[in-house]
Design a protein that fits this description.
The mean pLDDT is 91. This protein has 5 domains: 5-145, no CATH class; 155-281, no CATH class; 294-430, no CATH class; 437-485, no CATH class; 494-647, no CATH class. It is built from 30 helices and 20 strands. It is mainly α and 650 residues long. A hairpin with a 2-residue loop joins strand 13 and strand 14 (471-472).
Length: 650
């Protein structure tokens, strides 16, 4: 949806013509036609008895009423006084309104001025909260019009050529090819989106990407390359076969290379069907993302190295202890990323002075063992802390299905999954670097209806080699695919749980959660938010609002009574144990419990795939976290299992 000065004036003109003359508005000059055609594409105008006659649609009439009422109330100037390029409505404005609605009608500091300028937000007063900025009913009504209006989809041969040759995005808007009004036409049909709040970045929308693929793979035999009739004919062919089509429909589908002479669907036809589904159903996946930290990557590299040694010495296998042992052997200069990772853990546990001391001590120490001994000299506490650090990363890798732990010869060992191998090879090729949830989201948000990454999201994507030249890179596509393909298992650290517990379901912003902690912990809180978003427990919106997902709500509720001393209140191994216990137990619906008979515990150990010692340790963790009792999974444990299912839905 796009409304600039010319579109607003066109709507008002059509309305005035209908009121004064009781007839459709006729466009006498061809050069004046463009905004009217774009409004028709948006579903706000309808053609009259001739191509140059226009009348208001139901949605268009409602939009004109809203605009006139806002002008009368002084919320915005009359369109005649707008700057020619002022975007009263656009994909970025719809995204701002959407984010505000999802944030309990609060726009937040990032976008409030932009909505106020358009008349969609203002100051309100409540007795308990005082004065604050909130979006108004006009914004919500505009959003309803957007959600309930169906745009047209008609792609000419010239437009198809433009689409086929343009970068898909994300890209800076200045990279958008110049070609008259084509970008406005694309936005009218919801094929392109611009970033919040200033349209600095563009991307083809999820629908736009499918339409572009049609343009790139079809044979443009006619002046019109895509329209609703082509899509309906293609869908009819899939449902009922060639016999359901007219001769003309068969001729068109074959000439456009949507199907071949034998009735096989060609690539252009597949993309046309995908475009039809998105255009008709408007069903888009939620925005998911992915995350890797330096230590995670080091362990991805180390596990295959240990298996390599196993070829000559079968006694060497990548258990927890073996991984810690090999880590201690590494010179610290080859393992600089442990300083940042470990420093963050120290800051969470002891305060920022330890983190600063770590930086000074780094030059004096030579191994990871020295590093940990320096801060934990009492007994073997240093070893326990190093073990905990490695264990946290192993849990993370397994929670993202990059590694899997299995019992072999009485020991729990780790192996890379196919996804883990893909990541390892990518890191070897492109360099070991942090992959942030924000950078990956800069790619995945482009698959939505009107989402484009904020500029700083885009910058992170470029810096981490996930975006380049106006396209997602090979690496960007890999991590974006992993965001949706990996099977997540719930995992949360003690500090992440502290952050999660401070978050309401919505109506909270990044600056609010930063203010909940000492300012020296801002980096640690940011990392926790980053990880929680990658785990799909929350979504950081374009206005910096934070909204809990359904799995996030369940995780928070399930662990509401967990003591703060539990390092990993839930982790992949605990989840596997809960799944195994549920499989061998009996569900008591009224009590919200699964009871396990003593004779079935051995079977649960086998199903979990863990060795008995590891099973016993993780059972204790689950009990401390309040997920299981002596012989049953309680309601909190069942919530964790429900969250695990929701994490991997669709």
């Amino acid at each position: 949806m796009i409304i600039r000065k010319e579109h607003a004036l066109a709507l008002l003109r059509v309305k005035d013509e209908e009121v004064s003359k009781g007839a459709a508005c006729q466009i006498a000059v061809k050069s004046e036609e463009d905004p009217y055609v774009e409004l028709e594409f948006q579903g706000l105008l309808e053609q009259g008895t001739s191509p140059v006659e226009f009348k208001l649609s139901y949605a268009g009439r409602n939009l004109v009423y809203i605009l006139e009422e806002m002008v009368n109330q002084g919320l915005i100037a009359h369109p005649a006084d707008w700057d020619d390029r002022f975007r009263w409505l656009g994909s970025e404005v719809i995204a701002m309104i959407d984010a505000s609605i999802r944030s309990n009608d609060l726009p937040g500091n990032e976008i409030k001025d932009h909505l106020i300028k358009r008349g969609f937000a203002g100051e309100v007063h409540e007795e308990k909260r005082g004065y604050f900025i909130k979006i108004n009913e006009f914004a919500k009504n505009i959003y309803d019009i957007y959600k309930n209006t169906h745009p047209r989809l008609i792609i000419s041969k010239d437009m198809a050529h433009y689409l086929a040759s343009m970068p898909v995005g994300p890209a800076e808007t200045k990279m958008l090819p110049e070609h008259g009004r084509f970008p406005l036409v694309l936005e009218s049909m919801r094929l392109i989106s611009f970033s919040v709040p200033n349209s600095d970045v563009y991307t083809l929308s999820g629908l736009g990407q499918e339409v572009q693929l049609v343009a790139q793979t079809c044979a443009p035999a006619f002046e019109t390359v895509i329209n609703e009739d082509y899509m309906v004919a293609m869908a009819k062919f899939v449902d009922h076969g060639l016999d359901a089509l007219t001769e003309q429909e068969v001729e068109i589908l074959e000439a456009m290379a949507f199907i071949d002479a034998e009735g096989n669907i060609l690539p252009a036809g597949e993309h046309l069907l995908n475009a039809y589904h998105l255009w008709r159903e408007r069903e888009y996946k939620p925005v998911k993302t992915f995350n890797l930290e330096f230590l995670d990557e080091e362990l991805l590299k180390m596990i295959p190295e240990i298996w390599k040694k196993n070829e000559t010495n079968p006694e060497i296998v990548p258990t927890d202890e073996a991984i810690v042992h090999f880590l201690m052997e590494k010179p610290l200069k080859e393992y600089k990323h442990i300083v940042k990772f470990y420093g963050r853990m120290l800051n969470q546990a002891m305060g920022p002075e330890k983190k600063e001391l770590l930086k000074k001590k780094f030059a004096e120490l030579f191994t990871a063992e020295d590093l940990f001994k320096h801060f934990y000299e009492k007994g073997n506490e240093w070893y326990e802390k190093l073990f905990d650090t490695v264990k946290e990363s192993l849990y993370t890798l397994e929670s993202f299905e990059l590694i899997v732990s299995r019992e072999e010869n009485g020991k729990t060992v780790y192996k890379l999954t196919p996804y883990g191998k893909e990541v390892y090879l990518e890191l070897k090729e492109k360099g070991f670097r942090e992959i942030t949830a924000t950078a990956v989201k800069a790619v995945t948000i482009t698959k939505t209806e009107f989402g484009a990454p904020n500029y700083h999201w885009y910058e992170e994507g470029v810096q981490q080699h996930l975006i380049g030249g106006g396209y997602p890179t090979k690496s960007g596509k890999l991590y974006a695919n992993l965001a949706y393909k990996v099977r997540r298992l719930p995992h949360i650290t003690r500090f992440e749980l502290m952050v999660l517990h401070k978050l309401p379901e919505s109506g909270y912003f990044l600056e609010d959660i930063f203010n909940e902690f000492d300012e020296t912990l801002k980096e640690e809180v940011q990392y926790a938010i980053n990880k929680l978003e990658a785990r799909f427990y929350l979504d950081v919106l374009p206005n910096d609002g934070i909204v809990l997902t359904e799995p996030g709500k369940l995780i928070k509720k399930a662990l509401s009574g967990t003591p703060e001393g539990v390092a990993h209140p839930t982790n992949p191994l605990v989840v596997r144990i809960l799944q195994a216990l549920k499989q061998v137990g009996n569900l008591y619906v009224k009590e919200q419990k699964v009871r396990i008979l003593p004779k079935n515990w051995e079977e649960a150990i086998k199903i979990s795939g863990l060795d008995p010692e590891t099973f016993k340790k993780e059972i204790e963790v689950a009990r401390m976290a309040g997920l299981i009792g002596k012989s049953s999974i309680n309601e909190a444990g069942l919530m964790i299992l429900e969250a695990a299912e929701l994490l991997n839905k669709n």
